[in-house]
Amino acid sequence: MALILSGKEAANVFKKEISIKVDRRLKDKKKRPHLAAILVGNNPASSVYVNGKVKDCAEVGFLSTLIRLEEDVTEIELLKNIERLNSDTEIHGFIVQLPLPKQINEKRILLAIDPMKDVDGFHPENFGRMALGLPTYIPATPYGILLLLEYFGIDASGKRAVVLGRSNIVGSPMSILLSSNSKFGNATVTLAHSRTHDLELLTKSADILIVAIGKPLFINQSHVKEGAVVVDVGINRVDGKLKGDVDIDSIFNIASAISPVPGGVGLMTRVGLLMNTLLAADDRE
């Protein structure tokens, strides 16, 4: 029977630790960390996620600013908002919630964000620093996964890890972090994707399996070896309900631990964002 890697349980503990650090900052006459977010359009999932971030900020004692722009906003107008946040000394970090409407070039937008305020960790400068093992803002979802594993005492060192999905947001940075010479890493990592041959054989070799492929209930008992740790990053809507990329019922008695959907990685992604914002505030003192 698998241990449930509860993101809610872990997030609550980490948020209490963050709030203590905020209180300490205020006693030292330092500014409250201030996180801003730009939300374009009315994507329901994005709205829920950003509103959750605003709630998190209030809970840990951060200030927050939410900028809402219409679905038909021009790229120029969005860039003007980014520039205002870049130059606002009261804002420690900010994000532009993805995905963006089709008239917006996402790469151009991400490049416009000041790397020192890029608390999502998507800017090439921060990605490069992460790859080199230098201090930086780690992409929020991989950071949240590492914190989740740490909370439940799961050590990646010496383990064989398979990361399924090669996006720049989750899969690629996750593979780098797990293989890095750090307290979170030292695993032997394989990065797989939709075109990988003999996928079942590969995933079944994993001690730690990170799944971010975007296909609901794709991973089942044929993909998972006895005692594996399975982290499900997928969020899919199936018949009106949220489902992950893993068929949790089929592997519940095979895996040693698994993260649920919902209630797992999504909550920890928000913790990663809070951690990065706190670091950004410290960097500007």
Describe the protein:
Helices cover 40% and strands 16% of the residues. The protein is globular and about 50 Å long. The protein is α/β, with parallel strands linked by helices and 285 residues long. The chain has helices at 7-27, 44-60, 75-87, 106-112, 124-131, 140-151, 171-179, 199-203, 248-251, 265-283, and strands spanning 3-4, 34-40, 63-69, 93-96, 160-164, 188-192, 208-211, 229-232, 236-238, 241-243, 257-258. α1 (7-27) packs parallel to α10 and α6 packs across α10. It contains ten helices and eleven strands. β5, α7 (171-179) and β6 (188-192) form a beta-alpha-beta unit.
End-to-end C-alpha gap: 48 Å
Tally of alpha and pi helices: 10
Tell me, what's the shape?
A: globular
The tally of beta strands, per DSSP, is: 11
Write down the secondary-structure element order. Answer: EHEHEHEHHHEHEHEEEEHEH
CATH C-level name of the largest domain: Alpha Beta
Q: What is the helix content? A: 40-55%
For this structure, the CATH topology of the largest domain is Rossmann fold
The largest sheet is: 6 strands, parallel
Strand order of the largest sheet: 1-11-8-7-5-6
The CATH superfamily title of the largest domain: NAD(P)-binding Rossmann-like Domain
> What number is the mean pLDDT?
95
Q: Which structural category do the helix and sheet elements fall into?
A: alpha/beta
Helix and strand arrangement:
Layout: E1 3-4, H1 7-27, E2 34-40, H2 44-60, E3 63-69, H3 75-87, E4 93-96, H4 106-112, H5 124-131, H6 140-151, E5 160-164, H7 171-179, E6 188-192, H8 199-203, E7 208-211, E8 229-232, E9 236-238, E10 241-243, H9 248-251, E11 257-258, H10 265-283
Parallel strand pairs: 1-11, 2-3, 2-4, 5-6, 5-7, 7-8, 8-11
Antiparallel strand pairs: 9-10
